[in-house]
Each structure stands twice: as C-alpha cells, then as structure tokens.
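help with this.
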Amino acid sequence: MKISLLYLAVLLMLGAPIEAHAGQKAEVTWHAADTEPETAEENAAHAEGRAVDINEVNKMPVSLAVDKNAPEEKQDSVRRLLRNMEAVARSDVNVEVFISPIGGFRRNAQTRQISWEATREEVAAHWDHIHMATVK
C-alpha cells in the first residue's frame, strides 16, 4: 500500500523527536527543487507523485544548514531539524530516499533495508532542499 506524501509530511512534522530540543512540530514548505538537474530517477519519482522537495522547515530555508554566512545559531537549528527529520525517515520503511544538505540514504524497495548512504556529491547537489521519495 502506497503511503501518501501528505501522510509522510505529517509524519515528519509530528513524529517522535530524536533529540530533547527537537520536540517542536516542524512546519514544512515544499516545491520543486531550485537546483538542476535532478537525476532521472528523482524526476521519475516526482512524476509518479511519490517524491517531494522540501525547501523550508519552520519558515527557515533548508540551505541555512550549509550557509557559511548564516549565523551559527541558525545553522545549528536547521541542522538539528534535518537530523531529526532524517531519523524519522530512516525509521519509516515506506521512505525509499531521503537526501538533505547534511546527509541521506536510499532504501532497497524490496527488502526495505537501507542499502546506501548519500555521497558527498549527492548531498552537495541537495544544498537547498530535501529530496524525499516513498517506495512504489
């Protein structure tokens, strides 16, 4: 049974916090990625309606996590939110791909096991958004 992206967004916003200070609900804003090109696989997942690009969390751009000119407090805050969202995504076997500016993974759709960690190049390509896809 396919999980809806709306359900996935709600899960990430309301999921159990991983860190004590991450107990706040996250407000997520998403739209198509500003960076190009996305991989053919990412574009296919978007076209199938099972992928989303998240550009803001709690009204803060995801890119703040890696913006060297951003105040350290904002960088840390966004990094904590991204780590929390990734941890929730890792715990949900319906999330096939999660890549953010600070890390990510891919899950084998058949075994539902995490089969790969995002490379530096993939993380760098997602400097301004989170790409998340559900399994087919």
